[in-house]
Amino acid sequence: MIFVLAAALIAGVCLWCVYSAHRLAREALTRHAVGSDGIIPGAASIELPVMDGQNAVLLLHGFGDTPQSLAYLARELHERGYAVAAPLLAGHGRTLHAFAASSAEQWLADARCALDALRAHYAHVGIVGLSMGGALATLLAADDRELPALVLLAPYLRAKPLVRALARIHRVAGVLAPYVSSGERARSILDPAERARALSYGAATPRLIAELVALAARARTALPRIMAPTLVVQSRDDNRLAPATAEHVLATLGAREKRLEWVRGAGHVLTVDYGYAQVSAMVGDWLDRFMHATPDDALSSQSDAQRS
């Protein structure tokens, strides 16, 4: 009798997981139907060129999200005279099935390709990464001694224990639950109007979670190799990252010129949440400081940092 009850319980859990997975997939399809080009309307790459300009910025979006989360920042930087490119990374902004088929290596390859494309037209290219985009930006910056400036916005470089646990059992979990909630979606953007406009899935696969966790770990090990002046910005109310994560990033960075700025009242996606204009201004001011600096200015800034 006990074995029968146990088997029934296990079967019930399995059925619930399958049902939940299909419900998540249906909700994602209903919430964000793709257009004729296979991309969710509003989720396409952002490209804001500047004729005869010298300075450009690569913006990298977060996990399961789209360049739409960087639109305000892109506009601010373009108004300051920067050419801006925010590519839609592999799998993102399309169907949930397309997202499930993507990988961290593809996301990183897309980021590298976009960086190379900007450098073919502009003399100086900075990088700004949000959340998972911060991990990608970290990896790009670690091997780039010519990078003039880097900004990491709520960089996803350490997952919470529960997320890491799911990543470790992703093969088994993927059989039981093909799709899982990405969790705390409502708290990632506290502004209800911006939350309603967001184009993120709110769901992922256990394998994708494992890809994200591995990417974060890989980026953490790359921090000491970063030499570019780096600004880190995180909200005190971030629901996905502990304050210790940002403090670790700052302490581990190899850059001589580095700063950690805190904001309040925003969730994880601080580029569209309450106070986004303040965040955009911080990013613009940091880029202005280093992207327009002459070699003598840069040396002077490094000397000041050493004295302090």
| Portion of residues within helices | 40-55%
Backbone structural class: alpha/beta
Question: Strand content of the residues, in percent?
Answer: 5-15%
Strand order of the largest sheet: 1-3-2-4-5-8-9
The major pleated sheet works out as: 7 strands, mixed
Q: Which runs of at least 5 residues are low in confidence (pLDDT < 50)?
A: 3-21, 294-308
Order of helices and strands: HEEHEHHEHEHHEHHEHEHEHH
Distance between the termini: 73 Å
What's the number of extended β-strand segments?
A: 9
Number of helices: 13
Shape: globular
Overall average residue pLDDT: 87
Verbal overview:
The protein has a 7-stranded mixed beta sheet with strand order 1-3-2-4-5-8-9, with helices on both faces. The protein has a two-stranded antiparallel sheet with strand order 6-7. The protein has helices at 2-31, 71-79, 96-100, 104-119, 132-142, 161-168, 170-176, 185-188, 192-197, 206-222, 243-252, 276-291, 295-307, and strands at 46-48, 55-60, 83-86, 124-130, 150-153, 180-181, 203-204, 230-235, 258-263. With 308 residues, the protein is of the alpha/beta class. α5 (132-142) links the parallel β4 and β5 (150-153).
Write the topology of this structure.
Elements: H1 2-31, E1 46-48, E2 55-60, H2 71-79, E3 83-86, H3 96-100, H4 104-119, E4 124-130, H5 132-142, E5 150-153, H6 161-168, H7 170-176, E6 180-181, H8 185-188, H9 192-197, E7 203-204, H10 206-222, E8 230-235, H11 243-252, E9 258-263, H12 276-291, H13 295-307
Parallel strand pairs: 2-3, 2-4, 4-5, 5-8, 8-9
Antiparallel strand pairs: 1-3, 6-7
Helix pairs in contact: 2-12, 4-5, 5-10, 6-10, 7-10
